[in-house]
Design brief:
Helices cover 37% and strands 19% of the residues. By secondary structure, it is of the alpha/beta class. A hairpin with a 2-residue loop joins strand 8 and strand 9. The protein binds adenosine monophosphate (AMP). The site of adenosine monophosphate (AMP) has 17 residues, from helix 2 and strand 5.
Length: 277
C-alpha cells in the first residue's frame, strides 16, 4: 500500500488503475469505513482512501483540535484491507496560501445539520470536489450514516457535472444499534449506554411507518417522545424529510428520511433511517 502526502504523488499513482474506488474519510477508522473500502475494492478492482481532518468543515467552536486521530492504526487497518493507496495530505497541501474558493450547494446544505453547523457543508463540498479532482476516482463511496452529506454530494456532482459515480453504503451499527462513529470515542460509559436511544427512536418510527403511519408530524412526535425517555440527551432536531430535497414532510407519499441529532454533554450524535413503504 502506498502512503502518499502530495497531490503530485496521487496524480502519478492514479495512472496505474483503470478503475478506482475512493473512500474519503477523516480517519480514526472503524468497521463503517472498512465496509465502504471493501465495497470499493469489490466493485472497482482498486481502492484509495483519503484521511484528512478537513479544517474548513469545522466551525471555531467545534472539535477540530480534539477530533480523534490514530494514523498508525488507520494505516495498519488499510494495509490489512489491501487498499492500493492512502492519501494523507497536510492542510497546507489542500489549502495553500491564498486559497479562497468555496462551493455553496444551496438549500439542501442549509437545513438540518446545516442549520446548526452553518459552514459545515460548504467545507465538505469544497474538499470533496478537490479530492475528486485530485484522485479522479471512477466511483466514490459514502456512508448513509451521514445522510445529509450524501444528499449534498449527489447535488454537487449533478450540478457541477463531476464525472464520478456516487455509491452510498449502509450504516454499520454496534450490536445494540448505535451507529459506528469516530466521535463515539468521546462518550463516557453512561453516555454510551444512553446513546442507544437514537436507534430505538428510529426503530419506533420505522415500525409506525410500517403499520401505515404517513403523517410527518406524528412521526416526528413519536421519535421525540422516544428520545425524551433518555433525559441526558439534548435534542438538536428531529426530522422526517423528503430524501432528496430534505424538505420536512406533512403527508408522506413515498419514501421519507427520518433523522435526528442529539447531544450528550459536548458530543453531538446523528443517526437516520430511510422509511420505505
Ligand atoms: P468520516 O471519517 O466520519 O468523515 O466518515 C467517512 C465516511 O464513512 C463517510 O462517508 C461516512 O458517512 C462513512 N461512515 C461513517 N460512519 C459510518 C457507519 N457507521 N456506517 C457506514 N458508513 C459510515
Amino acid at each position: 500500500m502506498q502512503v502518499l502526502h502530495t497531490i503530485a504523488q496521487v496524480r502519478e499513482a492514479r495512472l496505474a488503475f483503470p478503475r478506482l474506488g475512493l473512500v474519503p474519510t477523516m480517519g480514526f477508522l472503524h468497521a463503517g469505513h472498512l465496509s465502504l473500502v471493501e465495497r470499493a475494492q469489490r466493485e472497482c478492482g482498486a481502492a484509495a482512501v483519503t484521511i484528512f481532518v478537513n479544517p474548513t468543515q469545522f466551525s471555531p467552536s467545534e472539535d477540530l483540535d480534539r477530533y480523534p486521530r490514530d494514523m498508525p492504526r488507520d494505516l495498519r487497518l488499510l494495509g490489512q484491507a489491501g487498499v492500493d493507496f492512502v492519501f494523507t495530505p497536510q492542510a497546507m497541501e489542500i489549502y495553500p496560501p491564498g486559497f479562497d474558493t468555496s462551493i455553496d450547494v444551496g438549500g439542501v446544505a442549509r437545513v438540518l445539520e446545516g442549520a446548526v453547523r452553518p459552514v459545515h457543508f460548504a467545507g465538505v463540498a469544497t474538499v470533496v470536489a478537490k479530492l475528486f479532482n485530485i484522485v479522479q476516482p471512477t466511483r466514490a463511496y459514502f456512508g448513509q450514516k451521514d445522510a445529509q452529506q450524501c444528499v449534498v454530494i449527489r447535488r454537487l456532482v449533478r450540478d457541477l457535472d463531476i464525472p464520478v459515480e456516487i455509491v452510498i453504503g449502509e450504516t454499520v451499527r454496534e450490536d445494540d444499534g448505535l451507529a459506528l462513529s469516530s466521535r463515539n470515542s468521546y462518550l463516557t460509559p453512561e453516555q454510551r449506554a444512553a446513546a442507544t436511544v437514537l436507534y430505538r427512536a428510529l426503530c419506533v418510527a420505522r415500525d409506525e411507518f410500517a403499520a401505515g403511519e404517513r403523517d410527518g408530524d406524528r412521526l416526528r412526535a413519536i421519535m421525540t417522545t422516544a428520545l425524551l425517555t433518555e433525559p441526558s440527551g439534548q435534542i438538536d432536531y428531529v426530522s422526517v424529510a423528503h430524501p432528496d430535497t430534505l424538505a420536512e414532510l406533512g403527508a408522506i407519499a413515498g419514501e421519507a428520511l427520518a433523522s435526528m441529532a442529539v447531544r450528550f454533554g459536548p458530543t453531538r450524535l446523528i443517526d437516520n433511517l430511510i422509511l420505505r413503504p
